[in-house]
Each structure stands twice: as structure tokens, then as C-alpha cells.
Write a structure and sequence with these properties.
Layout: H1 3-35, H2 43-57, E1 62-64, H3 68-74, E2 83-85, H4 90-108, H5 113-135, E3 140-142, H6 144-164, H7 176-187, H8 191-225, H9 227-237, H10 241-267, E4 272-273, E5 278-280, E6 283-285, H11 311-328, H12 338-363, E7 375-376, H13 379-418
Antiparallel strand pairs: 1-2, 1-3, 4-7, 5-6
Protein name: Membrane protein
Keywords: Membrane, Transmembrane, Transmembrane helix
Transmembrane segments: 7-33, 81-101, 113-133, 145-165, 204-225, 245-267, 279-299, 305-324, 345-364, 380-401
């Protein structure tokens, strides 16, 4: 393929990614428009609603001004004043990243990888701008700058990952004018320090991944254990079939938020479901919460052994550090000495705290007016406690891992000598 054909195919793929993201909300809303409303309402109302959901899922803030009759029917304090929706339905962002990775891999497999990747991202930005300016109404207005930048950055992250990973070994993704200066700067860092920083990045990232896996399993078990409560909340809403399907799709998009909230719960600070509320390993204190059936899986009351959840980041940080240390000792130019190992463990905690804090920030926001402006974890507390928990455990793990590696080598030498 020549350069023009490659660019056109990349633009088409970006269009398909946007269509999938918007279509997830638009298809059920369109069916609802035809079956429940009998085509009696302007279809663009549902189009704007679908675009708003897609933008919100990519982190774009929505300014809301509800009509008087709606605020009267809701009976929520503060609903009559303008408010913002800032809590992202992260399922849409996760989908955009995964599809972006696919686009990046396709770009890396062409002769014009930079052209393909750049065209895909620019096309995505153009489409995001068009969607943002088509969605504004007197009731809901997306932030225009965010509407252009944030969805594009989310997709570009996936494209970057997809384009970089396949060609990392061969070093073929980045152009020479960019790769050479970066390589020169990295070579100025002592080899032991580079190895130490790489171990901290790997260990901190692996620790966060482990915490999220445990959090996901905890959410799954909680859904099974509270399934009757979730079904009861569905029945309370009295939604018809299409309304129930639309609600379910929205909740599926919200599952990544719940998983991050569970990780924040294990870290200690927990989450808030409204100003003045808290859900932590030490207990739950909430009043009225949004009527989403998925919220039926959240813990309630005082948990007798809830404090044991605080051991999750500690144990994961320790195990990951032991594994990292054992792999580190097998490499050339690996750092040596107790002080360096302790520093490496502390850096793992720092990386883990930054990553989990950013995820906590991305998953939190305002879900409505009044006290619902504060929903989700406190990212600073989540990040700070993760640094302490994972950092201390990882520092100990880096020391123990070295002792285990030496013990294994000693036993191997003894067996070889006997033979």
C-alpha cells in the first residue's frame, strides 16, 4: 500500500472506533425511541444523549441545568441550580484504549507506521470535535476543550501502546531523530541506576495490577453474594425492557470505576457516596445513595474482619518485590547493597502510589447536585497510603528475595558437588 491508502485506512479505523463507542449507547436509545416513544420525539434528542454518555465516559465534564418541572419531580436538594457531571463511565475509556491498541498494532505493521498512527489520532480528534459541538443543548452542555482533547488522548494512549510494543525489540517504531537523543540521554545514566529504575517501574506497575486483579475478584464475589439485592433494586426502578437494557449497559460501563473503588477500599481510604459519607474497611457510613442497582454490591454496616483488606496491598507489594529481586539478580549491572534494595522497594511504592492515585482520580467525580458532588475515592489519600503500604512491603521483599536467591544458589552448588 502507498502512503495515501495507508492514511485513508487509518482514518476509517478511527471512524469505526468512534462509531462503536457512540453506538453502544445510541443503539438501545434508538430502539427505545421507536418502541416506547413511537418515533414521536426528535431522534436527535437520543443522539445527543448518546454522545453525552460517550463524552462522559472519556472524562469530559457535562454542565447540567435541569428544567423546573424535572427538579420538582426529582425532589433532590440543589437540583434547581446548575451542576456538573464529572464522574467518568470508564468502560468507554477502556474500550477506546483497547481499540486504540489494535489501531496502533495495525499501524506498526505498515510501511508508513507514523503516518497511519498520526492520521488515526487526528481523525479521532476531528470526530470528537464534531460530536462535542453536536451534543450541546440548553439542558446538558459538554466542556468543548475537554470534548476535543480527552477522548483523543485516551485513544492516542492506546495507539501509542499498540505501535510501541510490537516494535520495541526491533527498534523500528520510532524515527531515528527521536530515538537517538533519548538513547543518548539514557546512556548517560549509570547502568546500575537504570536497572534500579526499571525494576521500580516494573514492580510498582505489577503491584497495582495485582491489587486491581484482587479488587476485580472481590467485586465479582460481591455481585454473586448480593445478587438478590441488585435484582430488588432493578424491580424498584420499574424500568421496561429497553430501559433495563440501557441501564445495564450504563452499569457495565461503570464496572471499571467499581473495581478501582474496591482497590481504593483495600488501600484504606475507601470511597465516598456523597459528602459526609464513607465506605472503608473499618465500616460504612452512608445516607441516601444514587439508585443504581450496581451499588447494591457495596459493603454496608461494620465488617468484623474488614481491616484484613488492608493486607492486600502489603502482601502483593511484598510478593512482587521478591519476584523482581530474584529476576534482578540474574541480570548484568544489577544494583547491589542493602541501601539500593531498600531504595528500589521504596521507588516501587512510589510508582504504585502514583498509578493507583491517578486511577482513583479518574474514577471519582460528581454524580449529581447537592451532596452527590463528592463520589468516589480521595486520590491523594489513596496514593499516599499505597506509597506507604506497598513501599514498606516492597523494601522488605527486595531484601528477602535476595536471601532466597542466595539460598537457592547454595543448595544448587551443594547438589552439583555431591554429584
Amino acid at each position: 500500500m502507498n502512503r495515501i491508502t495507508t492514511a485513508l485506512l487509518a482514518a476509517l479505523e478511527a471512524l469505526i472506533v468512534v462509531a462503536i463507542g457512540v453506538g453502544i449507547a445510541l443503539v438501545p436509545l434508538t430502539v427505545l425511541w421507536g418502541t416506547h416513544y413511537g418515533l414521536g420525539i426528535d431522534w436527535f434528542v437520543f443522539w445527543r444523549a448518546a454522545v453525552d454518555v460517550w463524552l462522559l465516559g472519556n472524562g469530559v465534564d457535562l454542565a447540567v441545568q435541569l428544567p423546573v418541572e424535572v427538579t420538582t419531580a426529582l425532589g433532590i436538594a440543589g437540583a434547581e441550580a446548575p451542576f456538573s457531571l464529572t464522574i467518568a463511565l470508564l468502560g468507554f475509556a477502556v474500550l477506546a484504549v483497547l481499540l486504540g491498541v489494535r489501531t496502533g498494532r495495525r499501524a506498526a505493521g505498515t510501511d508508513y507506521r507514523l503516518t497511519a498512527a498520526g492520521t488515526a489520532v487526528l481523525t479521532y480528534a476531528l470526530l470528537a470535535a464534531l460530536l462535542t459541538f453536536s451534543a450541546g443543548t440548553a439542558v446538558v452542555t459538554p466542556a468543548p476543550v475537554q470534548g476535543i482533547l480527552l477522548p483523543t488522548l485516551v485513544f492516542a494512549l492506546g495507539v501509542l501502546i499498540g505501535a510501541w510494543a510490537p516494535g520495541r525489540a526491533a527498534g523500528t517504531v520510532w524515527p531515528g531523530w527521536l530515538a537517538r537523543p533519548v538513547t543518548d540521554q539514557l546512556n548517560r545514566i549509570p547502568a546500575e541506576v537504570r536497572s534500579q529504575l526499571a525494576a521500580a517501574l516494573r514492580g510498582g506497575t505489577a503491584a497495582v495490577a495485582g491489587i486491581l486483579v484482587v479488587a476485580g475478584l472481590a467485586v465479582f464475589v460481591s455481585v454473586l453474594a448480593n445478587f438478590a439485592t441488585v435484582i430488588g433494586l432493578y424491580e424498584t426502578l420499574q424500568a421496561d425492557v429497553m430501559g433495563g437494557i440501557s441501564l445495564t449497559i450504563g452499569q457495565l460501563a461503570f464496572i471499571p470505576n467499581i473495581v478501582i473503588w474496591a482497590a481504593s477500599w483495600f488501600a484504606g481510604p475507601g470511597i465516598a457516596l456523597g459528602t459526609g459519607s464513607s465506605i472503608t474497611p473499618l465500616g460504612t457510613s452512608v445516607s441516601a445513595v444514587p439508585g443504581l442497582p450496581l451499588f447494591g454490591v457495596l459493603p454496608h454496616g461494620t465488617l468484623d474482619f474488614g481491616f484484613l483488606g488492608l493486607l492486600v496491598p502489603v502482601l502483593i507489594g511484598f510478593v512482587v518485590a521478591v519476584l523482581v529481586r530474584q529476576g534482578l539478580d540474574k541480570r548484568a549491572n544489577s544494583p547491589h547493597g542493602t541501601a539500593r534494595m531498600l531504595i528500589t522497594g521504596g521507588l516501587m511504592g512510589l510508582v504504585a502510589g502514583i498509578l493507583l492515585g491517578l486511577l482513583a482520580w479518574w474514577s471519582a467525580g460528581a454524580m449529581g447536585p447537592g451532596r452527590l458532588v463528592d463520589v468516589g475515592p480521595n486520590p491523594l489519600l489513596v496514593g499516599a497510603l499505597t506509597v506507604v503500604e506497598v513501599g514498606i512491603a516492597a523494601a522488605l521483599g527486595m531484601l528477602v528475595g535476595g536471601r532466597r536467591a542466595r539460598s537457592t544458589d547454595t543448595r544448587t552448588e551443594e547438589v552439583s558437588t555431591k554429584r
